[in-house]
Amino acid sequence: MDPSYDHNFIARILLTVMTAGYGLVTIKADFNRTHATNPLWTPHARFHVVSQILSYVVFGLIAFALIWIPGPLYVERLYLTCACGLVVYGAFFITFLTMPVYGGKTYDENGYLPFRVELFGRKLELDVNATAFSIFFIVLIAGALAIRRAVS
Questions:
Q1: Do 64 and 81 meet the contact criterion of CB atoms below 8 Å apart?
Q2: How many Å apart are CA 47 and CA 22, to the nearest integer?
Q3: Are 77 and 51 in contact (CB under 8 A)?
Q4: pLDDT digit string (tens) for 93-133?
Q5: Chain segment 13-53, per-residue pLDDT in tens
Q6: DSSP secondary structure of 6-44
Q7: Which DSSP category does 123 fall into?
Q8: DSSP line for 91-118
Q9: How far apart are CA 22 and CA 6, in angstroms?
Q10: For residues 144 and 78, what is the distance between their CA atoms, to the nearest angstrom?
Q11: Neighbours of 84 (CB within 10 A)
């Protein structure tokens, strides 16, 4: 077995959590009446969200294989997994930041509404998607920083 395989156990765990964020959690979060089967959404919008869900699931399965199946170029495959996560989470944040251009909104009135928290004495209203994707993005960064090459 490649020595770097066990040397990167923490990185593999972090990257697994990050990948589960887009590859598995998306199924629960979006394939329901708030999104994919929402009768108030246009059929074309529902088509796109189902396409996105399936793309993320397959993308996630590939990433899980890159993380857990032993083989050559192991460290490089972990970095490729990071790149996959960067594509998914990066696209979300670009979409988030460009909402004024296309009239977007992070939530729908009949979907996941923002939630309120108190942090350091301040009351904040946080978006569910932006919060979850921010957490998974931090896990992505931690996973990338945890990747180590085997010492020869």
A1: no
A2: 18
A3: no
A4: 999 999 999 999 888 777 777 788 887 888 888 888 899 99
A5: 999 999 999 999 999 999 999 899 999 999 999 999 999 99
A6: HHTHHHHHHHHHHHHHHHTHHHHHHSSTTTTT-TTS-HH
A7: E
A8: HHHHHHHTHHHHT--S--TTS---EEEE
A9: 25
A10: 8
A11: 21
As to burial, measured by CB atoms within 10 angstroms (0-12 exposed, 13-18 middle, 19+ buried), residue 139 is buried
CB 61 within 8 A of CB 53: no
Q: How long is the chain?
A: 152
| Cα distance between residue 18 and residue 49, in whole Å | 20
Q: What is the pLDDT of residue 1?
A: 53
pTM: 0.87
The residues pairing with 123 across neighbouring beta strands, listed in sequence order, are 118
Residues 6+ apart with CB under 8 A from 40: 108, 110
Give the dihedral sign, CA 101/106/110/115: negative
5: tokens are 């395989």
